[in-house]
Structure formats: C-alpha cells, structure tokens
TrEMBL record, chains A, B:
It comes from Kiloniella antarctica. Gene3D superfamilies: 3.30.465.10, 3.30.70.2190, 3.30.70.2740, Uridine Diphospho-n-acetylenolpyruvylglucosamine Reductase, domain 2, Vanillyl-alcohol Oxidase, Chain A, domain 4. Keywords: FAD, Flavoprotein. Coiled coil: none annotated. Belongs to the FAD-binding oxidoreductase/transferase type 4 family. The keyword Flavoprotein applies. Transmembrane segments: none annotated. Residues 40-221 form the FAD-binding PCMH-type domain. This is FAD-binding oxidoreductase. It comes from the Bacteria. It holds the Pfam family FAD_binding_4. InterPro entries: FAD-bd_oxidored_4_C, FAD-bd_PCMH, FAD-bd_PCMH-like_sf, FAD-bd_PCMH_sub1, FAD-bd_PCMH_sub2, FAD-linked_Oxase-like_C, FAD-oxidored/transferase_4, Oxid_FAD_bind_N.
C-alpha cells in the first residue's frame, strides 16, 4: 500500500463498486496478477471490477485525486505483461470483466455495440446468431475480452482479409485519465470532423485511458469456404502464390499461414490427433482459406483454377483441398498445434516480428543463419501470418542443452534477430504489443523523435502518469 | 507582413528554397489564395515551395523561430478552405507541389512510396503501369495532391471496398511544428510498437505538422468489371439491395452510389452527352460497380444472379447492366454530371453528411420535410455514397427565388439539417473535412470533452499554434 494513501481509499473504492466489485484478499487477487503462462507474478493494491462506465469514471477520479496508478485489465491473456502491475507501480487493477453487456446490433449498418468486458467468443457467437461475422479470431478468443483486444490492436488469423482490430472499430467510449467520459460511440463509415481520437486509444495498451465500450464492424457470414494445405516448392514461392491468390481470389482470401516442417514434426510428436495430410515430407507449407458470403458463390470453381495454376507454375509440389468441414478442421488443428507443441521440446526464445511481405524469405534465411552461428544446434521454428508479413519467429533450444542456460541468452538472441528485422524496415512487435516486456528493446530501436512524440501524447492525456505506468513507452517524469 | 517579423525573414526563406521555391509577387500568389470555386480569396505573406523534406524542415524551423504561421497546401482543391490562409493568420503558404517524386513501388508487398506533392492521378497511373491499383478516386484527382488527400482523409467513390484514405496509408514522413523530421515510412501490415502516430496526422488538415511523404497500399488491378444502373422501387429498398450485394458479391463490390431523379433531370438539361439509360422515370437510382482482379473470375455470373434476385424481390423495377466499357463510362458520366449540373439551377446550399447506413432513408425523408417547411419550393438534391452512409445533401434554390436571398439562409438551413444528422448519431462532415468553413458549426455539435482532447493533442504538438491556425478546431491561446 503506498504510504501516502489516505486510510479511506479502499473504503471509498468500495462505496463506488460495492463489495461485489472489490477484491482485496491475497488468494483471490492471485489470478489477476499472474501471467497466463506463469512467467511473472505481479503485485497490486487491490482489484476493482466496476459494473458501469460511471463506476469506471468514479474509480479513475478517485485514483487521480490520490495519485494512485491504474492498470486496466481484460481477460489477462496478453503475452507481454501489459495488463499486470508490478510492485513499483503501486497500482490497482481495474478489471473490466463485469462490463459485459452487448448493447446493440444493427444488421443493416453491420455494426455491434459492446462493452469492454465482453469475451471475444461471445461477440463472435452473437454476431453469428444474427447471420453476421465478427472476424477477429485468435488463440485466446475463449478468454480474452474485446477491451483488451482493442487496447492492444490484436491481430490473429484473418488479418489479411479484415485487418487488425484497428480496422474493425468504428467508435469507442473511453474514460480519460482524469475520469471524464468521452462518448465516441459512432457507427459511421465516414467522419471527418476532427482528429480521429479513437485511433490513439486503439493499441495504446491502457496508457491513455480506459476503453469501456466500442462499436464493432460486422461482415456477412461466410456461407462457403475453401481450405487448402499446400506443400511449397521453396519458401520463396510463397510470394507469387500469395500474389496470385490476391488477384484471383481477391478478398475472399481470409487466411494465408506459413508452417515449417519442424512444426508438423513437433505437432505429430506432441499433439493429439494431428495428421500430416501430405505423404512426402516438404520444408514449407501454406494453410490457406477463402470464404464467400453466399451459397453457389463460384468460389469452389475459382479455387480449383487457382490450385491448378499453382501446380502448373510449380510453386506448389503437393496439396490437399479440404473436402468437408472435418477435413478443414483437421488442417486448422495442425496450425493450432504448431503453436502449442513447442513447449515439450524445451526452452523457446520467441519473437513476434513483421517485415514487408516481399522480405519474408530474406528475413527467415538471414535470421536462421545468424542464430545458428550464435548457438549451434538451435532449432528455428518460424510460423504464422505470412500474408501480413508477420512471423512468429520462435527458436527451440538445441537438443540436450540445459534449458535455463539457453533461456539466459534470450536478450542476446533477440538483439541479433531484431537487428535483422530493423535492417529490413520491420517491426519487433507485429501483434503482441510492447507491454512491460519489450519497453527497453523497443526504445532501443525507435528514433528519439518518435519516442518524444509518443511521450508528448502520453503527457498531454495523462500528466500524472497514473495510467498503466511503465508500459509501452519509457516513462517521463510526472508533472509536479 | 507581421510587424514583428525580422527584415531578413524573406531572404532567409529564399536561402533555403532558392528563387525557384519562393513566390512574393501578388499576381503570382493569387491562384494559391483563391478557393477553387472562387468563393474566397485569402491573404498570405508569400508562397514557399520546397523541393525536399530537408527544405521543408528548414522552412518550418525558421517560421517556428519567428512565430510565423504556416498553411500547408497541396493542389488547393479542398472544399472547406483548409489550405488557404486569411489576413488575420499572418501566414505563409507551404506548397508541396515541387515534392512530386515517386520514390518506390514494391509489387510483391503491394506498396508505393510517394512524396506529398504527387498528383493523385499520376499515382493511379503509375500503379496501373505496374499492374496494380491505387483505389483512391475522386472528382479532383487530376489536380489534387496525395499530401492533401492524406491530410484531409479524402473519401471518394471506392470507399465501400477500399476504405477512406486512412485505410490506404501504411507509413508517413512528417515535419513536426518544430521542424524535426519524423521518418515513419513503414510499409508493414502489422506493427504494434507504440501509439500509431500516423493516424493523428491523417485527417488533421495540416494542424499538427507537414506530411512530406507516404507509403500507400496497392491492390491487384481490376481485370473484369460489372457496372449496373438500377431504378429502385423505393428509397428504402436501397438497404436490402446493398446488404445482398455485400453477401453475394462480397468485396468485389467497389461502388454503390445513390442518384435522385432530379439529378438525372439536371444532368440531361445542362450536361453534355448525358443519356438516361432507363426509359421510364423513377424517383431513385443506384449506380453500382464490382471488380475482380482476374479474368474469367465468375464475377459476371455472380452479378447476373444478383440482378435476377434484385428484380425477383422487387427492390429494383428496371435496370441496365453495362455491356461494354463505353456503356459503363456513360453511366459514370451521369454520376459526374449530377455533381456538376447543379450550378446552372441557381444557388445551392450544401451538406456533406454521414449517418449509419440503416438511417439513410430516415435522414433523407426527415431532412426533405424540414427544409421544405423552412423554404417552400426548395429542391432537395441528395446524392452520393449511400454504401458508406455518406450523402451530399445539397439543396437547390426554389425556381425564381433571388439567388443571394436564398444563399443568405445558408447557416439557418445547415442548422436544421445538421440537427437531424446529429439526432441520428451522424457526422456533419463525412469526407470534406472542417477547414475554416465548418469550425464553428462543428464546435457547436462536438462534446466539450472531445474538443478539449483535440485541443490537448494540438497543444502538445504545436504549442506556438503556428500550424494552420484557425482550422479544424477552435484555437486555444498559444503558450507565452
């Protein structure tokens, strides 16, 4: 508890949110301060769970008056510790999970208004019941909350068609660091009446205010889908294959994922019911999917022509087109297991990078060579959203090496990989964000002018530096 | 000339940009301070035309040191006087037209890097030569410059498929109000490494800095197109017709434009070579277009099925599908003339509004009733981008009324129309921006918290208030 806190701070919080919205018991607090993979345990004064935007506003005002820091939190599924306070923050957790009302769905305008604590899957399901699609989709969708998705500009498997979370947001409701409520819940496709403030809050990781509600874009529900699992002739062939898909299949193309041979092997060894759909072994695979919003869409005809051309050009050596939903699911099961099945192979040093799509093969070859030189026997494990230029460039430890000795080299490996990324004008965090984990690394690569501009924005919104301090950008001194 | 200007200010400017980049003669200045439709003539100290980003930086630094205001300008085609200084601004014009180099085109990454002064049509043509599409398209495309398009977040006729300018920008290079150069020229689809600063500059109408270059998103070139001119059964039927297009045709749908009967009549009366493709007269028409990035795309089959269904549902009473490029051009000629042929009918009071797509019929009916009550005989002329919820709600004067007497009621009519827009959670400037013309009207409708947040952002970037003062948001006092 900060020594300068008034005695009645906790009781004042309780007055705002009642006992249903306040957690002070250590045991009950524990899940809120524990990183989902168990890597970190943070520290907090208490967990506050307001039920309404007005309660959020009152909590933030109280904290602002008392200069107590606030860490906004959704489903606590982030991978960079952006939603967890640490001892030096002397912060409360403002958890939005109780604000989980779907306020509205307009099928003609293709929009849906939801509160920040709605679980992503609940939103997907509600859209689906109304014959609409909310296309954001990622591993944690059963647990993560839309407020967190927006605050981190989440990516996922459909970005190539529908964009990142940023592209799916038409309006926001936000409580500012002084506790004021900004009602920006517009549901318009066009609005040129000033700075687009919502863009600042999207991806700001809770450092500029608390997102309490949002207007989401919806799309027609897919009625026909085509899913293919293709073995590439070479990594480089992924590029013309992608370009041809964009021309021929257009925006019906919804996913274009890269899977390396080692991903198949780990998945078959450690996963459950994972079947390699292609008999011979190949170095690289593409899992691709296309969707149409209508039956009898001609998509199957188009997709067949596309596959024929891919074989003809010899970009693809072998491949299977899913004949039914079960087979399509089995392809996606491989993709999910590629993510999950690294753990049993020991330590993994991870990167979430993006480069221009045209530089993907160069990046992978350069990075592989560099890390193998650094740690002989290291096992590169690059997979992910190649259509977006986004690779989860993970590195499994050499067989037989001591796990901790390997993980101790995390930062050293990061630097080598990130140097290559920056050299290719890339990003060291494509979709996971910066949080607490990557603040230093990010500041190392950003220009001083960019850091300064970000700090200016931060300071103008939050002069007391109470909103998620220490996250995203290097802290500046708060105003006295 | 501001009385506190040092004598050598102009000669210092000339040192930076040489005599090729400096205009001080009144006659030569005149086109730069004249609104394109001749509505206003502004006033400026001089016109500076730098040739490089470094020159822009040096000019801005000199102005900042001397507290001289700067109005950034592109092709000077804006409709709200955002690019013209006025006497009280004591400002120079910083015209970007000489910075017109296309720096790069990457066909695999589908990106193009251009300087701010490139004319939109030049960019479209260069993309096209490389078998790619840059989809931003609007009336002024032969004259307007991309820097201005970005600074105003321009819309146009392809927004339903490709989004506003904001959605087409991956990176920016900006000179800040202190003359520093921010190199944010990334060409990434994903980048979560901090606040997305470019979003602030996009649509900020030159009030936060000078955009000097940008990375644009490209798309596959259209290889097949379908263009249809359809007569609606009723205005309300536009909505299910649009929704069905989005499901059946998906993102192949690139335009969905509303045209009223009066638009056809004015176009036939005053336009050149305008032919009404449908024999009988109808109240409302839709001009729609769809594109595919490949030949033999099945788009014609899909489009035919769509048309059949539209007739079957009786949303469409009559319609013509263009049989060739010439016929498609003739449909678009109507659309262009709808914009142009209002002038010969006398005074026109204009609005550029957006509402949720589902509220379009309600808006038009309510606004028509309200303005007819206010000015009997007034002739509503609503047209435009109904697929984006964006209507150019123009109002031609009653036949025989004195033009000036009619135009004198501009603000009164605006207020009546905008009240209805706001009541429907709409926007009073969908794509034209705020500039100088709509500052007061916008401030009337925005919440005080939103105005305050915008002013905070403005002040943090430009504490001297030298960047395009008096535009976009109500000015605040500069720091002493």
């Amino acid at each position: 508890m900060p020594n300068n806190l008034p005695n009645d701070f906790i009781s004042n919080l309780e007055q705002i949110v009642t006992d249903k919205g306040l957690i002070v018991e250590k045991n009950e607090i524990r899940p809120y301060i524990t990183e989902r993979r168990g890597r970190f345990v943070g520290e907090t004064l208490c967990v506050v769970k307001p039920a309404t935007t007005k309660e959020v506003s009152a909590v933030v005002k109280l904290c602002s008056d008392n200069k107590v820091a606030i860490v906004p939190q959704g489903g606590n599924t982030g991978l960079v510790s952006g939603g967890i306070p640490f001892a030096e923050d002397r912060a409360i957790i403002l958890n939005l999970s109780r604000m989980n009302t779907i306020r509205d769905l307009d099928p003609i305008n293709n929009t849906m208004t939801v509160e920040a604590g709605c679980i992503l899957q609940t939103i997907q399901d509600h859209a689906s019941k109304n014959d609409r699609l909310f296309p954001l989709s990622l591993g944690a969708e059963g647990t993560c909350e839309i407020g967190g998705n927006i605050a981190t500009n989440a990516g996922g498997i459909n970005v190539i068609r529908y964009g990142n979370t940023r592209a799916l947001i038409l309006g926001l409701e936000v409580v500012t660091p002084t506790g004021e409520i900004w009602d920006g819940l517009r549901s318009l496709r066009k609005d040129n009446t000033g700075y687009d403030l919502k863009q600042l809050f999207i991806g700001s990781e809770g450092t500029l205010g608390v997102i309490t509600a949002a207007v989401l874009k919806l799309f027609p529900s897919p009625k026909e889908q085509q899913t293919a699992f293709l073995a590439l002739n070479s990594l480089e062939d992924a590029l013309p294959l992608l370009n041809m898909a964009q021309s021929m299949i257009g925006d019906a193309l919804t996913s274009f994922e890269l899977i390396p041979r080692i991903g198949i092997e780990f998945s078959q060894k450690h996963g459950h019911r994972v079947i390699d759909p292609i008999e011979a072994k190949h170095d690289w695979y593409i899992l691709m999917e296309a969707s149409a919003g209508t039956a009898n869409s001609f998509l199957p005809d188009l997709f067949t022509k596309y596959m024929e051309k891919a074989f003809e050009e010899q970009w693809v050596l072998d491949g299977v087109l899913a004949q039914n939903k079960a087979q399509s699911d089995s392809f996606w099961l491989i993709r999910e297991n590629v993510t999950l099945c690294q753990k049993p192979e020991g330590g993994s040093i991870k990167h979430d990078i993006a480069v221009p799509v045209s530089s993907i093969p160069t990046f992978i070859r350069k990075a592989n060579a560099a890390v193998k030189k650094l740690i002989p026997g290291i096992r590169p494990y690059p997979f992910g959203h190649v259509g977006d230029g986004n690779i989860h460039y993970n590195l499994s430890q050499p067989v037989g090496m001591d796990k901790q000795a390997y993980l101790n080299r995390w930062e050293e490996v990061n630097r080598v990989v990130h140097d290559i990324v920056i050299d290719l004008n890339g990003s060291i965090s494509a979709e996971h964000g910066i949080g607490r984990v990557k603040v230093k690394e990010n500041a190392h690569y950003k220009s001083s002018i960019e850091i300064k501009l970000m700090q200016q924005v931060k300071h103008s919104f939050d002069p007391l530096n109470i909103m998620n301090p220490g996250k995203l950008i290097p802290s500046i001194q708060p105003k006295k």
